[in-house]
Amino acid sequence: MNKQAIDTLLQKINDSAISEGNPRTKEIVNRIVRDLFYTIEDLDVQPDEFWTALNYLGDAGKSGELGLLAAGLAFEHFLDLRLDEAEAKAGIEGGTPRTIEGPLYVAGAPESAGHARLDDGTDPGQTLVMRGRVLGEDGKPLANALVEVWHANHLGNYSYFDKSQPAFNLRRSIRTDASGNYSFRSVVPVGYSVPPQGQTQLLLDQLGRHGHRPAHIHFFISAPGFRKLTTQINIDGDPYLWDDFAFATRDGLVPAVKQAEGAEGKPYGVEGNFALIDFDFTLFKERDNLPGAEVERLRAEA
């Protein structure tokens, strides 16, 4: 079919509407359908290929992997870049870079004041202390800011989704003190891969790509009157640091990991050697006429 014939068919579909509907939904869906019709024609997509793709998406939904696909196909990273661009146009530059949330946040983690321990002492790995401040764009500390933090265990699994782990293992919420300080104790996370027999890896194999993520720690940072920050820090030295299948590694999010011991660990209840990360987060004040930094999406809640 030529494009004119396709456009005639699309118009017939649009004309079949019996009510006004939602203008925004119509605009988006009609554009997607048009682009897919053009793609099918241009690439001579056969019926069995079309239904294989549709069935694949159904299977990915059943297995709960659509969030992984969104990350692996760089949709999440692309959305971050668009937010960066919108903020830059409004004069917001610098600060702590945002990066993807991923699909494994769980709401309701226990909240602590100033400091928290994420692990229960049974997770193997080197002890980690991460500390720093939450600051405004003027460099002043933000008291009572909320630092939500979560990461995977030594097997690359996240509590709640991995039922063998205790509730909220390696997940906590921390309120900064009057000087904007936060700190937490945990274990140094490791990198991991998407499920090897899952739907995400099935597609990655077809694309000739790997499904590895470098070791990282997730964060939501929020404070009243400021734009919420969704970000991660990566553990320096990971072999996939700059080859993340989810494209989440960004300059400014790879802090130094120092080796510490002795008196430096006492405030955190740590004896002996441990890994230490110092990292400050910078938030920007809310502005009018900017896309929201608070993303509405379905999230797990315990």
Question: What keyword list fits this structure?
Answer:
302 residues, five-stranded mixed beta sheet, 6 helices, 26% helix, six-stranded mixed beta sheet, globular, alpha/beta
Report on this model:
The structure is a single chain. With 302 residues, the protein is of the alpha/beta class. Helix content is 26%, strand content 22%. It has 6 helices and 15 strands. The protein has helices at residues 3-15, 23-42, 47-62, 66-72, 75-89, 199-207, and strands at 106-107, 111-113, 115-117, 127-136, 146-150, 171-175, 181-187, 192-193, 212-213, 216-222, 229-234, 258-260, 274-278, 281-283, 300-301. The strands form 4 sheets. Strands 3, 4, 7, 12, 13 and 14 form a 6-stranded mixed beta sheet that branches. It has a 5-stranded mixed beta sheet with strand order 2-6-5-10-11, with no helix packed on it. A two-stranded parallel ribbon has the order 1-15. The chain is globular.
Total count of strands: 15
How would a crystallographer describe the biggest sheet? 6 strands, mixed
- The percent range for strand residues is 15-25%
Mean residue pLDDT: 97
Distance between the termini: 51 Å
Rounded to the nearest angstrom, the radius of gyration is: 22 Å
C-alpha geometry: globular
Compressed to H and E, one letter per element, the order equals: HHHHHEEEEEEEEHEEEEEEE
Low-confidence stretches: none
Structural class: alpha/beta
Approximate helicity band: 25-40%
Helix segment tally? 6
